[in-house]
Amino acid sequence: MAKFVRSSKFRHVFGTAAKKDKCYEGFQVSGNSVDSAYCAVNPKFIAIILKSAGGGAFLVLRHDEVGRLDPDHGRVGGHKQDVLDVAWNPFDDNMIASSSEDTTVKIWQIPDEGLGKQILQEPLLTLEGTSHQRKVHQILWHPVASNILLSASFDPMIIIWNLETGEAAVEIDCHPDLIHSVSWNTVGSKIVTSCKDKKIRVIDVRKGEVICETAGHEGAKPQRVAFCSELNYIFSVGFSKMSARQYAVWNADTLENLAMEEIDQSNAVLFIHYDPDTKMIYLAGKGDSIIRYYELDKESPHCHWLTNYSTNVPQRGVCFMPKRGCDVSLNEVAKCFKLVAKGYCEPVSFTVPRKSELFQEDLFPDTQGDEPSLSASDWLDGKDAEPKKISLRPGGDGAAKAAKKPKKGLGGLGKMAPKKKEAKADDEEAELIETVKQLKLKVEEQEKRIKALEDKVGH
């Protein structure tokens, strides 16, 4: 018998927008034309790049600072020109990097209580000098090593910074034209890039050498790439000669094309979010009102469309929460924050419907935690390591417990803000909820046994 429906536990994933009282509003999103998400999120804060005059700035909000923004709310405003990208440190939820048209990259420390009405203008560290000569449009933290940061500029240059010394550790100069996007592999030994010359390149980061390259999408508009190391794939989005949007799947070792499909005729550049735990791809375009999600597979055709989340309002930018910040009690497999041009940020939860209220192990395998696997010096010396994983099971070694561990900082450049006791309280509360659920199940079983025995004695 032919099998018409592909089996997948994520086939019924659906997106739900937060109610208005759980959204953020009252700010002006940057109007810069660079291809940027304009926001970044972690389990504590959301950062939003603002439209500003007389220097670049971005907003940092705690997750509970919902509703209309106080006009006097603080912001980070230390750049001389527009901020183009922001990225939270995956190993320290209070540390964020920003890049700007002023050719610099700055590292900032955000207090646990947020900014309040403070205007933060003194960074922990400024990365500048003769390295980047033009505006820096993308920054990425290393996936497993602490205090390693990548920046890509209009030079076009890619620089790997050692934040412990504040100096450029590696300079990669192998692109003849503008770099459209960069993505690390899981262990941080390679990157994949897309360029205005329409080529996709896999690069040995420490050596700064191209391992392999291939012609990507044929269209002239920007294309973007993502390393999907768990499947040894590279996923890309771009345009055909006829300007139709496409996605493609490539072999990460040889860059052999495994699949290429047309999406639609829109002209918006798509941004890629890859979830290594579920092997799902989320595609969101600036100016679109749709977020598409797909599932990658080892078998041909390698990429399967699941469904779309759509609204009536076009998005200006989208950022995704790290998996350790998702609510597993709601079976939330992904959560994004959607910016719209009018100054409104809307959280969207992607959940899988299940009847059971117990922890769903198949939906939530161990995920990357907030502890680095290597130091900056170890990685620069040539060592590689897999990410340190944590369990998302309530009461286990999940994000709340991991957040209590002390951070080392940037080689003494900044003193970390003391951690509060919120993580411990959240951990204990989650464990208590799980215990109560298990006790309820046991009580129900005992009641059934008692009823059966009473019926038996009655007869």
UniProtKB/TrEMBL annotation:
Residues 3-67 form the DUF1899 domain. GO terms for molecular function: actin filament binding. Residues 380-389 have a biased composition (Basic and acidic residues). SMART domains: DUF1899 (SM01166), DUF1900 (SM01167), WD40 (SM00320). The keyword Transcription regulation does not apply. One of its GO terms (biological process) is actin filament organization. WD repeats lie at residues 76-110, 129-171, 172-213. It holds the Pfam family DUF1899. Keywords: Actin-binding, Coiled coil, Repeat, WD repeat. Signal peptide: none annotated. Belongs to the WD repeat coronin family. This is Coronin.
